[in-house]
Every structure is written in C-alpha cells, then in structure tokens.
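Reminder to self: tokens first, then the designed residues, so the page reads top to bottom the way the pipeline ran.
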C-alpha cells in the first residue's frame, strides 16, 4: 500500500471515530493538503478495489470501512 493510500485510510478511520460519519472527499483533500478532490476519488476507489473500504455510488459521505477479517476467514 502506498503512503498516500495509507494516510487516506487512517484519516477516514479517525474521522469516523470522531464524528460518527464518513468524511467527504473535500474534507479529506483539505485535511491532507491535497489540491484536488479527483486525487482523493482515485485513492478512495483504489482502496475500495483492494477491499479496505466500501463506497455506495452516487451517495454523499458513503465511505464505510470494510471488515476484512470476515472476508479473510471466508477464503479459508
């Protein structure tokens, strides 16, 4: 996992713990010093493809942490 993906994932975890909802792409971008939400969008969807998070399409603040442990057990 790249450093930028790890930072985004950790930020999402911390934000959800503090606020009870997922952050918007704009909040993530501003907090991590990124200039573009499109970079965050790309990272978010890569994390989704890797199974770390879940995203509901066309929904605002729809990022949800995935429970990888259940999926890993199911693979056994």
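Designed residues (76 positions):
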């Amino acid at each position: 996992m790249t450093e930028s993906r790890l930072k985004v994932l950790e930020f999402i975890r911390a934000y959800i713990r503090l606020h009870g909802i997922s952050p918007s792409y704009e909040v993530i971008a501003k907090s991590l010093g990124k200039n573009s939400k499109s970079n965050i969008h790309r990272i978010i969807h890569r994390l989704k493809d890797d199974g770390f998070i879940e995203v509901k399409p066309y929904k605002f603040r729809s990022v949800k942490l995935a429970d990888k442990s259940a999926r890993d057990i199911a693979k056994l």
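The beta strands are 53-55, 63-65.
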